[in-house]
Design a protein that fits this description.
heterodimer, A: 166 residues, mainly alpha, B: 166 residues, 8 helices, elongated
Chain lengths: 166, 166
């Protein structure tokens, strides 16, 4: 269904320009990985704290206040570099279910993170103490970690599976 | 024994043959190991970036450097060990090719320099951390942060480029 659109996109002058520059995709992918490091590193630190692992550090609300803005910045970089890679190699992206699974999971985990950040902002005291932390905290921590891991798997496997569908 | 002979012996090991997917059932081994390597390296780079940005005064400014170090570094080292194990497995698949690859060599030059930078910082500016723990780090600490960040960006870039040049 997306194949005609991918073929059309691959034929546009913008896509052809990106394809002609051999350094564009590897450079974009490198920046993409650096941004993944910020997002996933931050997510892991927050989630480990929510699960009560490593008690020596900052409170949940402090940690979120510092790290969540960095996650949004890095996510913007991911969107931009991902867009470059998609325009440069549209067929590679659109034909494999890995790409679509990744996009769906990003929407879910980003929405979850926004809701989480809002909840912590609204009631920092309750989230900081282990005893009064809502039950949703653990569910969020586990689910968001699993989603980010699955997103990384799908991202890497786009490159290994697309040729089966093309 | 020459280095070439040693690399050839490594490539002939059964586990190296499996990493190349040449044994039935191991076709997906390399992509799986590579994905685990990427997961681990994002934790390494993400956690180091948090410390570097703190040293540069760009993030976590209200957290003491020593506290952040204690909070983050155990995860950095754990993830680094995991990345090193999976990275070694990937190297074994095509030891000769990687050893002769420019980007691969530059990646390890960057990592070596990052290690030197870490030792200089640890036995230099960090010994007087009590003096500047809660506030603005001295110029030598800022320099260490900037160098570390640049070198680890180099590690990620050259690491990704290995995949495009081998």
């Amino acid at each position: 269904m997306f194949r005609p659109f991918a073929d059309w996109l691959a034929d546009t002058p913008l896509s052809k320009t990106l394809q002609d520059q051999a350094w564009v995709v590897p450079t974009s992918q490198s920046i993409h990985i650096l941004a993944v490091s910020i997002v996933f590193g931050s997510a892991c630190m927050i989630n480990l704290r929510l699960l009560g692992v490593g008690q020596s550090g900052r409170s949940v609300s402090q940690l979120s206040k510092t790290l969540v803005p960095w996650m949004w910045r890095a996510l913007a970089v991911l969107l931009f570099t991902g867009l470059i890679q998609t325009v440069a190699e549209p067929v590679r992206q659109f034909v494999t279910p890995m790409f679509w699974a990744k996009m769906l999971m990003i929407i879910i985990v980003a929405s979850m993170t926004a809701l989480y950040a809002k909840a912590v902002r609204r009631n920092a005291a309750a989230w900081d103490a282990v005893s009064s932390r809502p039950w949703r905290a653990k569910a969020f921590a586990i689910l968001s970690t699993l989603l980010w891991l699955a997103i990384i798997v799908c991202g890497r496997f786009i490159g290994y599976t697309w040729s089966f569908y093309a | 024994m020459s280095v070439e002979a040693l690399l050839a012996i490594i490539e002939a090991w059964p586990i190296s043959v499996a990493m190349r997917g040449e044994i039935p059932g191991t076709e997906w081994l390399f992509p799986i190991i590579e994905t685990l390597h990427v997961m681990a390296l994002t934790i390494v780079v993400g956690s180091i970036a948090m410390l570097d940005l703190r040293l540069l005064g760009l993030a976590s400014r209200n957290t003491a450097v020593s506290r952040l170090t204690a909070e983050v570094l155990p995860w950095t080292w754990t993830a680094w060990s995991v990345a090193a194990v999976f990275g070694t497995l990937m190297f074994m698949a095509k030891a000769g090719t990687y050893a002769g690859n420019l980007q691969f060599r530059l990646k390890f030059v960057c990592m070596g320099l990052a290690a030197v930078n870490m030792f200089v910082f640890h036995f230099g500016a960090y010994r007087q951390v009590a003096r500047w723990d809660g506030g603005e780090p001295p110029m030598s600490a800022k320099l260490a942060g900037a160098l570390s960040l640049s070198l680890w960006i180099g590690v990620v870039f050259f690491g990704r480029w290995v995949g495009f040049t081998t």
